[in-house]
Amino acid sequence: MAEFPVNPTRFDPYKNFKFRVKWDNKYVAAVSKVSGLVRTTEVVEHREGGDPSTSRKSPGLTQFAPIVLERGLTQDHAFEQWANLVWQFGAGLGSEVALKEFRKDIVIELYNEAGQLVYAFRVFRCWPSEFQGLPDLDADANAVAIEHLKLENEGWERDTAVTEPVEP
Predict the structure, then answer these.
(1) Which of 43, 103, 105, 106 could form a disulfide bond with 23, CB atoms 3.0-4.6 angstroms apart?
(2) What are the DSSP calls for 54-110, one per residue?
């Protein structure tokens, strides 16, 4: 049974379709998909010389998987503007990268069905390693044009100030 201390009669876990993303203290328009937050710690195996039958395991390097944001193509150019800080076409030699501002912290917020904030994660020192500004175009398709932004990051943490709200 799911555990909800503030709302003990709630049984169902939170849904994954109500969320928002923000950077530079502004919500980013039309984000329709965010990949999961994944942290992987390598395993370092070693064994002692006097004990050949078993190995010991300890934690090694921790890595954070890139986060992919997707959204329908609109006139909001936030994805492109951020990607251009990493590499700007036509910029002068040595000024292709905006070194002071190409990294940003982002916030990913999850809401319950009533629209109340239930979780927030801060993702640190993100920068775009891949930007797809225009998808494959197909005259026979019946689909929304989607742009993608792949963000490298140096870690994330849950915002513990966001707690379970009293549900209506």
Answers:
(1) 106
(2) --EEEEEEEEE--EEEEEE--S--HHHHHHHHH--TTPPTT-SS-TTTS-EEEEEEE
